[in-house]
Design a protein that fits this description.
By secondary structure, this protein is an all-beta fold. Helices cover about 0% and strands about 45% of the residues.
């Protein structure tokens, strides 16, 4: 059974850092691009970052560029999102997602932040507050 499990969320002060993990079970991440999203109460889901498995290409939303870094460790079957210089507006539930295995599943698609994904984790809460 394909599963994605996020962890690493919590309460952090403005300016602080967190590292989120997206661990895969039931499949190997070697052939999948992984995207991170977040959703704050009353707001639409926002695509944050995507990392390809084919060549390691990374993509970021403008709102997090320069502050967040996505990476992957295929040996650990895990994708990470390092979040620095956190702001109160980063408060949200954070999700990772991927699509069903296919000829293009290893690459972040054009418009990855709007693409449909087949598998989602349960989310991890990030709260940035003093």
């Amino acid at each position: 059974q394909v599963q994605l499990v996020e962890s690493g969320g919590g309460l952090v002060q403005p300016g602080g850092s967190l590292r989120l993990s997206c661990a895969a079970s039931g499949f190997t991440l070697d052939f999948y691009a992984i995207a991170w999203f977040r959703q704050a109460p009353g707001k639409e889901r926002e695509g944050l970052s995507c990392i390809s498995s084919s060549d390691g290409s990374t993509y970021y939303a403008d709102s997090v560029k320069g502050r967040f870094t996505i990476s992957r460790d295929n040996a650990e079957n895990t994708v990470y999102l390092q979040m620095n210089s956190l702001k109160p507006e980063d408060t949200a539930v954070y999700y990772c997602a991927t699509e069903r295995l296919g000829p293009d599943s290893s690459r972040c698609k054009f418009g990855w932040y709007l693409a449909e994904y087949d598998y989602w984790g349960q989310g991890t809460q990030v709260t940035v507050s003093s």
